[in-house]
Amino acid sequence: MTFDQVPDRRSKPSWEGVLPGRPAPFFLEDGDGERAKLFDSVVTVLLSADETEGQFGVFTTRQPKGDLIVAHSHEDVHEIFYVVEGAARVFLEHPDGRQESRLLRPGDFGYVPAGIVHSYRTEGEYNKILGVSTGGFERFFQALGDLTEERDVPTTPFIPSPDRMQQAFTRYRNIPAPGQQWEGA
Prior knowledge:
This is Quercetin 2,3-dioxygenase. By secondary structure, the chain is mostly beta strands. The chain has helices spanning 140-144, 162-171; strands at 34-38, 41-47, 56-64, 72-74, 79-85, 88-93, 99-104, 109-112, 117-122, 126-134, 146-147, 174-176. It has one domain (41-175): Jelly Rolls (Sandwich), CATH 2.60.120. Strands 8-5-10-3-2-1-11 form a 7-stranded antiparallel sheet. A 3-stranded antiparallel sheet has the order 7-6-9, with no helix packed on it. Strand 2 and strand 3 (56-64) form a beta hairpin. The chain is globular and about 45 Å long.
């Protein structure tokens, strides 16, 4: 399946028609879905709030070994991390201020409830992570990233502008935690 890039993203989404957009059975082959390039990753939405009546979204990220992402929290978004290939270290801070980090390898699972400050870093040479979030949040990666036909780690990174980052963080209620220090990071 190919995408037609739309110069004005405010018109119709360029990934329109890839997913049903309503609760209906469907299947995707490996790499299919709504793909966006973001930094050195390809994020693929497999299931959106549109197909689950707002309940949850499912996506994958494919990325190389990387840097720690910006620490953040979400007021009303729960997230899971399931490592399919490679490894990822998830950092989080409990409500009592206690920090925890866990290295997740293939088959390992992590859950971060809404309101918890967290971050992660991919540690394998090649990583594929399955994410599930509260419905609607899966679109954050598309708002921040750029449409791509690439199915794997991008050949050239996409760095969003500061304005685009601010808009995406605001729209999807990502609350950055600048200056957050993680033990062992």
